[in-house]
Amino acid sequence: MFNKRAQTAKIALVHPPADSDKATAAAETSNVQKFTVRDGAIPSAPEADPRPRMRPLLERVTRDQVVSALLACVSIGALFLFWYLGTKYRIEFYIRFKNVPTPYEVMQQAIQVGLSTKFLVNVVYSIRRIMFGFAVAIAVGVPLGLMIGRYRRVNDLFMPAIEILRPIPAIAWVPMSIMLWPNNEASIVFITFIGAFFPILLNTIHGVHSMDGVLIRAGRVLGANEARLLWNVVLPGSLPHIFTGLAVGMGVAWVSLIAAEMISGQFGVGYFTWEAYSLVNYPAIVLGMITIGILGLACSGIIRICGFFVMPWLAFAPGSKK
Amino acid sequence: MMNIEKGQIDVRDVGVIFGADTSNQVVAVNDVNLNVQPGEFVSLIGPSGCGKSTILSIVAGFQQPTSGEALLDGKLITKPSSERGVVFQQYSLFPWLTVRKNVEFGLKMAGVDQGKRSITARELLDLAGLLSFENHYPDQLSGGMKQRIGIVRALATSPQVLLMDEPFGALDTQTRVVMQEILTNIWQQFRISVLFITHDIEESIFLSDRVYVMTARPGRIKAEIKVPLPRPRTSDMTETPEFTGLVHELKGLIREESLAAMGPEIKTRGLEGFGMKVGPQGVGAIL
Q1: Which residues of A touch B (CB under 8 A)?
Q2: What is the pLDDT of residue B276?
Q3: Which of A24, A126, B53, B187 has the fewest beta carbons under 10 Å from its own?
Q4: Nearest Cβ partner of B110 from A9, A223, A236?
Q5: How many angstroms separate the CA atoms of A302 and A84, rounded?
Q6: DSSP helix/strand/coil, A18
Q7: What was the ipTM of the complex prediction?
Q8: Per-residue b or e along B153-188, where b marks 16 or more CB atoms closer than 10 Å to that residue's CB
Q9: Predicted pLDDT of residue A47
Q10: Contact, B142 vs A21, CB < 8 A?
Q11: Are A287 and A118 in contact (CB under 8 A)?
Q12: How far apart are CA A212 and CA A302, in angstroms?
């Protein structure tokens, strides 16, 4: 339908795509040349092939990564060294390493436990609770956050209640949760949900509020009705903040889960760790802690990877090339 | 879509007052009357803060006038609609959509199926000379490219009128000039009515059939100038005596208003009244 026009217009439009970036770049190089000529320096320098300039950049990036990896090793190594030396010399200088198991003991415990299914069952339980609680937190937190962020009346209705509930830490919900829910499993999932819910909700609201209003107006003049505006403009526009909420929420969810498992649980990594303390099995305590650390790290890693795939445009966003 | 009879904008006795109480009310726009005939390119020019963008957002349907009315083809404008395309001053492309998906957005909202959407979007991108960037994200493009995409995105739904709010305001001078040529080219193809807001005198003359000049706040229409230059417009026309004559005429009208916009002191005493001689020696010589 535009064919004929497109052709005629193309002739007129052949040169513009070069656009300002390149044009100004060209202008800059010619300026540079003028200056160098005037200063009596070698005028051919700016004309040099750009490829040799790319190489050092590439080398610097890889060296950068090597340095990062080295520092990461130093960081974790120092942690182990401190632990190793503390337990080797049984340091007692206000903090007491007297009963702390050595890295070797913990490793042996890991091997022993790894051969049994009991430990694995605990890990699976914790992961399942996290997944349920987190999924419900997303399913409730994101839509509610979008509505609260977008509509003042929804905000007026929900925010007072939310502001009262928000300062109550998830751990404080444990007794109430046990009373509320029919079984132990549901009450622990509920506590995990509480932990994840508020960071997700508040970041979603913030995401809607911090959106550029011109995008909403653009959506409306392009014919989007309110529902489509929410789905096609407000939601994607708030995604970066929503993902911040997910990352924070995941951290709080783990904190809440472990606390709930320690207090009221059966199964789960938190339960495993607390049980080890009750049974005076010190290496298992440390194993439980390390497991929690690794699981938490893996979960936030998964969220980061999801974010990367869900929001590919962020790689080009103005702030990303710092 | 080349229906010449459609696309008439009428703005009648429009006034806009900001602020609820009588004590802090600001009259932004007062008794504005203007019209854009079907297929006509009309500019609205005035000093900053005179309310020209307010007029545009009323015609776009983002805002309701306190008094008066805005009509499109005799129908009262009450809310935004895809029959009135808007190109914004800021970059308004959706950063999460690729260039092609941005152009397709309006068609998607209109329920056009994916195949047709893609064909139309690609044709329009070709028209803007940006087909090779169809799978790029807006953040990968320069300002001029983004605004070109903003224009074709607004045209994708075949609107009857195009409303442009200082679309080239954020671009550098060279890009601006190229963009103006591109816009006249595109407009020549589509022949839809355009209401173009700007504060750039040369730009308004180069692009328009008619130019409305607004006064400083409260904004009113001060003058209406016809631009008799032939079409299609080319960049060498800017050196013709007709063009420079129009620039001169508009400059005189705008200068008065710009001084008024700076405050009553400067208006009554002029720059010379402050003991300044702004001449060839410049401000540096005075200080």
Answers
A1: 1-3, 5-6, 8-10, 12-14, 16-17, 19-21, 23-24, 212, 214-215, 217-225, 228, 232-233, 236-237, 239, 311-313, 316-318
A2: 56
A3: A24
A4: A223
A5: 31
A6: helix
A7: 0.85
A8: bbbbbbbbbbbbbbbbeebeeebbbbbbbbbbbbbb
A9: 41
A10: yes
A11: no
A12: 29
Contact A9 B186 (CB under 8 A): yes
Q: Can you state the percent helix, strand and coil of chain B, rounding each to 5?
A: 40, 20, 35
Q: Which residues of A touch B146 (CB under 8 A)?
A: none
pTM, two decimals, is 0.80
Say if CB A13 and CB B182 are below 8 A apart: yes
Q: Which domains does chain B have, with CATH numbers?
A: 9-83+161-170+191-286 (3.40.50.300)
The answer to whether the CB atoms of B174 and A23 lie below 8 A apart is: yes
> What is the average pLDDT across A219-231?
94
* Interface probe with B: pick from A2, A222, A311, A321, most Cβ of B within 10 Å: A222
Residue A47's region, left for phi above 0, alpha for psi from -120 to 50, else beta, is: alpha
Q: Where are the domains of chain A?
A: 20-49, 51-93, 102-321
Contact residues on chain A for B147, CB-CB shorter than 8 A: none
Residue of chain A whose alpha carbon sits nearest to that of B103:
A222
- When scoring A3, A10, A20 by the number of chain B Cβ atoms within 10 A, the one with the most, hence best to mutate, is A20
Q: Quick check: B90 and A212 CB within 8 A?
A: yes
pLDDT digit string, tens, across residues B38-87: 989 999 998 877 888 899 999 999 999 998 999 999 899 999 998 899 99
* Domain spanning A102-321, CATH architecture: Orthogonal Bundle (1.10)
Closest among B271, B9, B279, B268 to B164, alpha carbons compared: B9
Within 8 A of B180 by CB-CB distance, chain A residues are: none
Across the interface, which of A223, A228, A313 has its CB nearest the CB of B137?
A313
- Both structure tokens of B37: 């005939």
Q: Do A218 and B96 touch (CB under 8 A)?
A: no
Interface of B with A in 187-246 (CB under 8 A): 189-190
Shortest CA distance from B174: residue in chain A? A20
The alpha-carbon gap from A222 to the nearest alpha carbon of chain B, in Å, equals 5
